[in-house]
Design brief:
alpha/beta, 13 helices
Length: 329
Amino acid sequence: MAEQPFLYLAPIRGITDCLFRNLWQQHFGGFDQAVAPFINPQPHSPFDPAQLRDLQPDANKSLPVVPQFLHSEPEGLIALAQRLHDLGYTHINWNLGCPAPMVTRKRRGSGLLPYPDTICSLLDQILPKLPLQLSIKTRLGLNHQDELLALLPRLNDYPLTEIIIHTRLGKQLYKGSTDPESFGHCLQLSRHPLVYNGDIIDTGTWRRLQRQFPTIQRWMIGRGALADPFLVKAIRGEQFNAEQRVVMLQAFHRDLYAGYRQSLAGPSHLLGRMKHIWFYLAASCPGQQKLWKKIKKTNTEEHYLEVINMTFASFAEAATRTILDKTPQ
C-alpha cells in the first residue's frame, strides 16, 4: 500500500482560525495538521496575550496546530517562543512568505527574501535561545526566483525541521501561475525536507505534482480545500455522493455560523466573516457565480440566512433528483 501523504491546512488570515479549524476537521476531516495564521508582532510589548487566544491547547484538540510568527527582530520572537513553549508547543513556523504589501514594505514575510544576510543573522541570534523546533514557510522570492535559490544553500547550515514553499513570487500575491519547475530546483539545493504548497485545486493537479515530485510526502493545501471541502478526502481515496455533500456542507455552515455569531462583535463582523468564507466556498456549489453574487449583496442576518437556506434547499432537491435518476427502475 502506498504511503499516505501528510497534509497541512494552510494558514489563511481571517479564515482559518481555531473555530474554523476545529469545525473543518469535525465535518470534513482529512488534514493531519494546520499551520495557524501568523501572530503579528506588537511594537510596544514582546507579545500580546490576547493574540494567543487562538492557540490555547484546550481549544485545539481536533486538529494539531503549529503557531506561526512574522517577527524580524529577535527579542520579541524569543519572548513569544517562550510563551508558546509554556503552553506546550514544540514547533514554531517562521513566515517568510506573506505577500501583503503592508507586510513586505516592513521587510517581513516575503519582503525579507531579498536580504539573506538579515535572515541568517536572525537565525544566528534566535536558534541558540529558541525553546522550540523551527520550520520556515516561504515563497520562491519576492521579485524573482533567484532570491530563494540563493538562500536555500545557506539555510542548510541551520537545524530546521522543514521548509514549506509556496510556488509563487511575493509580487504575484495569489495571481498568475505557480512555478513547480522552480520547486524542482529548490529540491536540488536544500538538505531540509521540503513541503509543496500552491494551487492544489483538484485531484488531477495533486496526482500530476505527485508524479513530478515522487520524493515529496508533505503537502500544504489552502484555498483549494476552501473551494472544495471534499478535496482532501478525495486525495486520500474517499468520495461522497451529491446528497452527502449537501448534508455535510449544511452542517458545517450551521455550526460555523452559530460559532461566529457567538464570538464576533455584531452582525457586520459576522456577515463580513461569512462572506469572506463564501468567496471561496461558493466554488464548491452549483451555479457558483450567481450564488456568490447573492451572498455578497446581503446586508442583514435575515437576508443572508434566507439566501443560504434557499440555496441548500435547492442543492438538496437537485441531489435527490440525481440519485433517483440513477436508481434502476
